[in-house]
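Input record, target 12 of the design panel.
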């Protein structure tokens, strides 16, 4: 990996991609076994009965409910407090039904967020703060189809969910005071209940800021995707 200057990858040309600014972690999910490596900062994901399959770009991590699969990192880097956060990546459902995508929610701490697809064909985002703020909107994903999901949390304004780079739903979170991170760390494919997922995950990143419209368009790249270092 190239050296970093002010959080920007340098390969003979400084500021080679603005998407490297504020990037906390990025997992390509290319590994066929073992930890899924954070190529940017070293916050690797520890797998529990995780397989691999062809991904959106390269390989993907395959998780199953039968295997109670999950990918977990418990580093403090994912304690974002009340700061802006954006998380984005590709997901493919391998069967229908309820699916747990990504989770930083802790019931004990009454904070954090999660993204799930529920049994009624709706995508649900929940930011926990006392009673919590939920976004629930119909979404009927096609099995074995890749979708790009982005969740942007502007702590002075809106929480915005995008699917395939189109706004799916927004809700105000300006009055919220809890951390967007209740767990230590982050989990893919598992909620604290616990419930799990039959999904493939590929090319996921966390930023400690909001991405721009141009940056989201670059990541989505018209549906073909773009991988680290986003050149």
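The sequence produced for target 12 reads:
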């Amino acid at each position: 990996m190239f050296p970093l200057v002010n959080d920007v990858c340098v390969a003979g040309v400084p500021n080679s991609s603005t998407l490297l600014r504020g990037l906390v972690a990025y997992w390509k999910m290319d590994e066929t076994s073992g930890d899924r490596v954070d190529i940017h900062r070293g916050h690797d994901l520890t797998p529990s009965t995780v397989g691999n399959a062809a991904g959106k770009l390269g390989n993907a991590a395959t998780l199953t409910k039968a295997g109670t699969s999950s990918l977990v990192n418990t580093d403090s880097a994912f304690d974002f407090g009340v700061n802006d956060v954006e998380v984005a990546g590709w997901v493919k459902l391998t069967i229908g039904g309820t699916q747990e995508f990504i989770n930083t929610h802790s019931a004990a701490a009454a904070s954090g967020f999660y993204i799930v697809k529920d049994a009624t064909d709706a995508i649900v985002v929940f930011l926990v703060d006392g009673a919590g703020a939920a976004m629930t909107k119909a979404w009927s994903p096609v099995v074995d189809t890749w979708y790009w999901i982005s969740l942007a949390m502007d702590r002075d304004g809106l929480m915005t969910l995008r699917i395939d780079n189109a706004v799916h739903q927004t809700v105000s979170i300006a009055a919220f005071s809890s951390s967007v991170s209740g767990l230590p760390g982050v989990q893919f494919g598992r909620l604290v209940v616990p419930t799990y997922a039959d999904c493939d995950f590929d090319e996921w990143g966390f930023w400690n800021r909001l991405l721009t419209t141009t940056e989201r368009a670059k990541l989505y790249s018209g549906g073909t995707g773009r991988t680290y270092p986003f050149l």
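Residues 91 and 201 are 5 Å apart (CA to CA).
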